[in-house]
């Protein structure tokens, strides 16, 4: 059997830090939405597990790759040894806060489950995804969700309809470094607050209220990467692009679009940018 799976990116419409946990992770609340920027996963018949990556981004092919980790986890849970050739068409920038690797891992789990007759329930897929990374469970379903804890606890909503301008400045951020260089932050924010501040205005199309409310506490990191991202945000503002926000731990920046934008100044910057939609 052959299977082709689109693997979408996401943006963080807001991200608040509630403090540092005893396990060393940060407690957070974030609102995420998938967007129509995709990697593509091809699953082809083979006599062994193999991974091939197409694209100009250097990624590991061995045991540290999240796709390979997902395959091994599937085998451990089901006893099924996946013998497939996986070809990844890599379009989502790496280290851009767009969740490409997490999306690849989640969609690999879903694809293997389909290929081998659905031995796992959706609940079991979510449980496996938790072992692969904080954002991975979100991509089992995608759309619009609030995540909390380390990001593994989720509440999903009907996907919203909006357009964004996404800017990737052609450099990557290290998630670990961004968190390591974060000053102490202890937000008193609840799930209900996140719904009121972001989800409700998003679903109701109250764009001005939404733009006023969205924020990302990771922009307070002292990492050099985030400092560069903040300079890019200033440049975007100087050329007339309304409030922009860093997605996740960076380096990409997005702005919700409600009117026509002149992109000629962006072309002069040499950045990668796209107009995209929520999905």
Fold and architecture overview:
By secondary structure, the protein is an alpha+beta fold. It folds into two domains: 3-157, 2-Layer Sandwich (Ribosomal Protein S5, domain 2); 163-277, 2-Layer Sandwich (Alpha-Beta Plaits), CATH 3.30.70. The protein contains nine helices and ten strands. The protein has helices at 66-78, 100-115, 122-130, 136-141, 175-180, 191-204, 207-213, 224-238, 264-269; strands spanning 3-20, 26-45, 50-54, 84-89, 144-149, 153-157, 163-168, 244-246, 253-257, 272-277. Strands 1, 2, 3, 4, 5 and 6 form a six-stranded mixed beta sheet that branches. Strands 8-9-7-10 form a four-stranded antiparallel beta sheet, with helices on one face. A hairpin with a 3-residue loop joins strand 5 and strand 6 (153-157). Helix 1 runs parallel beside helix 2 and helix 6 (191-204) packs antiparallel against helix 7. The longest helix is centred in the middle third of the chain and has 16 residues, at 100-115.
Going by helix content, strand content and strand pairing, the class is: alpha+beta
Q: What is the percent of helical residues?
A: 25-40%
Quickly count the helices. Answer: 9
Question: How many strands appear in the DSSP assignment?
Answer: 10
Proper CATH architecture of the largest domain: 2-Layer Sandwich
CATH class of the largest domain reads Alpha Beta
H/E element order: EEEHEHHHEEEHHHHEEHE
> What would the average pLDDT be, to the nearest integer?
94
Number of domains: 2
Radius of gyration: 19 Å
> What is CATH's topology name of the largest domain?
Ribosomal Protein S5, domain 2
Q: Low-confidence parts, pLDDT < 50 over ≥5 residues?
A: none
Strand content: 25-35%
General shape: globular
| Major beta sheet summary | 6 strands, mixed
Distance between the ends = 27 Å
């Amino acid at each position: 059997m052959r299977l082709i799976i689109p693997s979408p990116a996401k943006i963080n419409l807001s991200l608040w830090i509630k403090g540092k946990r005893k396990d060393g992770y940060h407690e957070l609340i974030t609102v995420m939405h998938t967007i129509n920027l995709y990697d593509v996963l091809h699953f082809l018949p083979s006599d062994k597990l193999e991974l091939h990556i197409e694209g100009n981004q250097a990624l590991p092919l061995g045991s540290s790759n999240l796709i390979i980790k997902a395959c091994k986890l599937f085998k451990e849970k089901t006893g099924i040894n996946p013998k497939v050739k996986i070809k990844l068409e890599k379009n989502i920038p790496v280290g851009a806060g767009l969740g490409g690797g997490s999306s690849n891992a989640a969609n690999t789990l879903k694809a293997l489950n389909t290929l081998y007759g659905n031995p796992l329930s959706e609940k079991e897929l979510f449980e496996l995804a938790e072992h692969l990374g904080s954002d991975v469970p979100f991509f089992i379903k995608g759309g619009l969700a609030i995540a909390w804890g380390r990001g593994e606890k989720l509440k999903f909503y009907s996907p919203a309809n909006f357009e964004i301008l996404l800017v990737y400045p052609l450099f990557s951020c290290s998630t670990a470094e961004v968190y390591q260089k974060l000053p102490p932050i202890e937000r008193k924010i609840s799930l209900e607050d996140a719904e009121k501040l972001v989800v409700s205005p998003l679903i109701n199309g109250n764009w001005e209220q939404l733009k006023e409310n969205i924020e990302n506490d990771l922009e307070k990191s002292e990492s050099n990467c985030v400092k560069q991202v903040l300079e890019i945000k200033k440049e975007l503002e100087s050329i007339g692009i309304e409030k922009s926000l860093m997605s996740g731990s960076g380096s990409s920046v997005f702005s919700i679009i409600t009117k026509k934008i002149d992109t000629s100044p962006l072309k002069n910057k040499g950045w990668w940018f796209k107009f995209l939609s929520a999905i």
